[in-house]
Amino acid sequence: MAGEVVSEKRIGPGDRVSFRYRVLAEGGLVDASEEPVTIIVGEGRFPPSVEKALLGHTEGEVLSVWVPPDEHYGWYDPRKIQFLPVEKIPPQARPGETIFVPDELGVLHPARLARRDSRVAVVDLNHPLAGKPLRFDLEILKVEKISEPQGGQKI
């Protein structure tokens, strides 16, 4: 009809949005929501690129967003490669496997065993997804307009 106003709920800062997501990296599926996730846009529960990409979209839309490494696990840092005495590595561990190595305070950190010989083990403390962009596929299920955005939101 002429003059009819369509009331679309376009996402804005501070709106409550429910969606399903999948996260993919070059190696395939990294994470996916089993149940819908609900966020307040701008609160920072998801990477800034994802929350910003939601702006202006509506219920039922599907979108993909590329998230740079500095918004998730960071860039690959060669300083996180360590050489340890082989005695500190579980004897059954094989190259490519994740092991746990203690820091100077005894706190265990996951690391990938890169290489070992009879005296030295090389471990990589970088997260496996460090330095890799991630693709978030989103299916917007519900948008609830909030009259006044919460303070402190940045998008």
From TrEMBL:
Residues 14-93 form the PPIase FKBP-type domain. Its EC number is 5.2.1.8. It holds the Pfam family FKBP_C. It is found in: Cytoplasm. GO terms for cellular component: cytoplasm. GO terms for biological process: protein refolding. InterPro entries: PPIase_dom_sf, PPIase_FKBP_dom. Gene3D superfamilies: 3.10.50.40. The keyword Metal-binding does not apply. It is an enzyme of class 5 (isomerase). The keyword Cytoplasm applies. GO terms for molecular function: peptidyl-prolyl cis-trans isomerase activity. Keywords: Chaperone, Cytoplasm, Isomerase, Rotamase. It comes from the Bacteria. It catalyses: [protein]-peptidylproline (omega=180) = [protein]-peptidylproline (omega=0). Belongs to the FKBP-type PPIase family. PANTHER family: FKBP-TYPE PEPTIDYL-PROLYL CIS-TRANS ISOMERASE SLYD. Also involved in hydrogenase metallocenter assembly, probably by participating in the nickel insertion step. This function in hydrogenase biosynthesis requires chaperone activity and the presence of the metal-binding domain, but not PPIase activity. This is Peptidyl-prolyl cis-trans isomerase.
